[in-house]
Amino acid sequence: MATIKPFKGIRPPKELVEKVASRPYDVLNSEEAREEAKGNEMSLYHIIKPEIDFPEGTSESDPCVYAKAAENFQKFQDKGWLLQDEKECYYIYAQTMNGKTQYGLVVGAYVPDYLNGVIKKHELTRKDKEEDRMKHVRVNNANIEPVFFAYPDDEILDELVLKYTVHPSVYDFVAPDDGFGHQFWIIDNDDDIATITKEFAKMSALYIADGHHRSAAAALVGAEKAKQNPHHTGKEEYNYFMAVCFPATQLTVIDYNRVVKDLNGLTSEQFLQALAKNFTVEERGMDFYKPNALHNFSLYLDGKWYSLTAKPNTYDDSDPIGVLDVSVSSKYILDDILNIKDLRTDKRIDFVGGIRGLGELKSRVDSGEMRMALALYPVTMKQIMDIANTGNIMPPKATWFEPKLRSGLIIHKLS
Fold first, then answer.
1. Which end of the chain is more exposed for a tag (fewer CB within 10 A), N or C?
2. Residues 6+ apart with CB under 8 A from 378
């Protein structure tokens, strides 16, 4: 069962939140962060992308960069740009995209729950990325950015969240870079806090939606601190890390698409003929064509769009991995036809989040950078949870969640 606790959040004053808040560290590069933070000394990028405070070209992994993160985090607190709440609270974080709002509870997730599998993952993590985030957690002694969890829907929690969100929020703004709305409430009532803790304790699992490397890093640092403390009791703050937990049915998983540099020596006609073995291929002309159902794909090639519908022998409805369109396309298109074996390392393929739209796929092919594009129907939260529940791992580049959590609304100190 899931263990959570409230915590004393470190947050910007209401009048500064839009100056402090930023996109997550891993959705933009150093140059983009430098540009977005230009003229704004309060931007959280100075903590989560501190290389922007050094000359261009400074390595993100330079020890002086991590030290700068800690220096800036302390500066933000000294100057009152970040203030710690006096009481342990839960928080509500709402995001609005395209008229749809999802409501997440900000909690302290339990490190042992990650280590023993109560907090379930669906992606592999890379050791180098884990270590980068671990260094960041260690040097700041804090989880600067939250991770993104899903939980099974719970009517009692829905009612409690509604009780708060009918009232004005502490923060309420629209982010300029994506146009998404962000709102924030504080839950400081002792009875409500107890109810939230109790409801989560009934849940057999929580699910990492986005932020696998941050989750791993936070949990590993927590476990590290436990081993280093001869008086460890299990109640210390480092036994918890910050997560925003959303009801699974509220979340939006969007498509994660592929662009490929060449056709593995085939002509366009030969490629289409090869596809016909395992797909029903229909030309759709020059108008954008978006996949309309599971096992339907969109191909852009030579200025034309095609519908590809996988034949029944290409997937197994009883196999949580084999039924996924990322599995079907990887095996029967990328591997069998194009000889792309490893999506993580092959330089002939790139990936485009569906938030960029089909136009991004078209432009990358039309420019000559890429030879063809493949759009996929998005996976569902049920598929993700089924895979996590069976202990399986999703194929690479399978999920893309939007909207992303805004960083800087709240921070969790480990002591």
1. C
2. 253, 254, 255, 256, 354, 400
